[in-house]
Amino acid sequence: MRTRAITILGLLLAATGATTWAADRPAAGPSGFLYGTIETDSRQTHTGLLRWNTEESFWDDLFNSTKDEVPHLEAHERSGQRRREVRVFGFSFGYKWDDSRQFVARFGDIQTIEPLRGEKVRLTMKDGTKITVDGGSNDIGAKVSVRDDALGEVRIDWDRIERITFRATPASERPGVLRLYGVLTTRHGSFEGYVQWDSEECRSTDKLDGDSADGDVSIEMGKIRTIERRGRSGSRVVLEDGREFELHGSNDVDDSIRGILVEDPRYGRVKVSWDEFVRLELRSVDHSGRGYAAFPAGRPLRGTVTDASGRAVSGRIVFDLDEEWTWEMLDGQADGVEYIIPFALVRSIEPQRGDRSKIVLRAGGEIVLEDSHDVSEDNSGVLILGAGDRETFVEWDDVKRIDFDP
């Protein structure tokens, strides 16, 4: 029987929900929209608002790929420290973890993107660190739209792009659309923040498609007041003008949806499954999210790892042998919700029985996560880098607690 994760949501919602968001509320205006310059192989440059396909449009949206190299993981593989044994019918077998690792960063953490050969891409982060990634999502190979002041909207094929350089969005920009914002209710709690419906629709002019009693409809998201789940195969949609529709027949309104993303400032980003979804109430707001300058340059993870014997080792931390920066993400699930939490928001991690971990957040509150490499026995362990090139490796089974420095 699968053990259900326990989440401390009631007190957290009451204590940090509205208060935290009010304190961090961005200023009105276009600052949250992606903005930058695209250089093409024809030596042209286009500067303006950016969008990846019909999806990512904002600085806190996620750029996904696969890490091309994981040096610490590969070093421990060569040393044999990561081999384990499993016994079956009295026989011992060695095995290794899957070395394929995801790369996830917010666009606001990236300085430049340079496509290389095939699906390889060189990223320069805000602190100057260069990272090569390789495929892994439709963020690589996408058409990137840029709203060029002279030409209007230009959609540029990925293989024509030489470099994308991000910069702060000018206050004078007029996107002509609003960012979707709302309160999403699940069977176990609620989340408030910017919304990306079906992992795609995030602007007021994006369309929600479905079949109604009168035929196919395609409704601008900005004209919708609420969306409510109606079983596995449909939704009840209420418009701002009061009209109601029962819709079915598309992944916008049934259980084939690719997930509902909410940028909740307590956690970072959450992804809610259809089975967990109850209702979304959209609200009109004049802000679009944190601006590019609000994403500080990343810092190495630092802190103290306490093992099962009580020994505490402090220094630079490489978590799961591949995550070592404050902009990187800790992920896990609880009650049908996937949490994608920047390490900068994490105060401590404590492995628990039942293949899960308790996460204490800097904003207050805690949550128990499971079902991911980061928080389960699949974790490859923690490396602590100390003074004088001293390295201390702690197997995940031996980790009692990790406390991250502010």
What do you see in this structure?
This protein is mainly beta. It folds into three domains: 35-73 and 100-166, no CATH class; 180-284, no CATH class; 294-404, no CATH class. Helix content is 6%, strand content 45%. It has two helices and 32 strands. The chain has a ten-stranded antiparallel beta sheet with strand order 19-18-17-22-13-14-20-21-26-25. Strands 9-8-7-12-1-2-10-11 form an eight-stranded antiparallel beta sheet, with no helix packed on it. An eight-stranded antiparallel beta sheet has the order 29-28-27-32-23-24-30-31, with no helix packed on it. The longest helix is centred in the N-terminal third of the chain and has 15 residues, at 10-24. The protein is globular, with a radius of gyration of 22 Å. The two termini are 38 Å apart.
Helical content stands at under 10%
**Sheet with the most strands: spatial strand order:** 19-18-17-22-13-14-20-21-26-25
Mean pLDDT level: 89
Shape: globular
Low-confidence stretches: 1-23, 82-97
**Spatial extent as radius of gyration:** 22 Å
Taking the sheet with the most strands, its summary is: 10 strands, antiparallel
What's the quaternary structure here? single chain
Straight-line distance between termini: 38 Å
* Individual helix count: 2
Element layout with pairings:
Blueprint (H helix, E strand, L loop, with lengths): L9 H15 L10 E6 L4 E8 L9 E5 L4 H9 L4 E5 L2 E5 L6 E5 L3 E6 L4 E6 L4 E5 L9 E5 L3 E5 L4 E6 L14 E6 L3 E7 L10 E6 L2 E6 L3 E7 L3 E6 L4 E5 L11 E5 L3 E5 L4 E6 L19 E6 L4 E8 L9 E6 L2 E6 L3 E7 L3 E6 L4 E5 L11 E4 L5 E4 L4 E6 L2
Antiparallel strand pairs: 1-2, 1-12, 2-10, 3-6, 4-5, 7-8, 7-12, 8-9, 10-11, 13-14, 13-22, 14-20, 15-16, 17-18, 17-22, 18-19, 20-21, 21-26, 23-24, 23-32, 24-30, 25-26, 27-28, 27-32, 28-29, 30-31
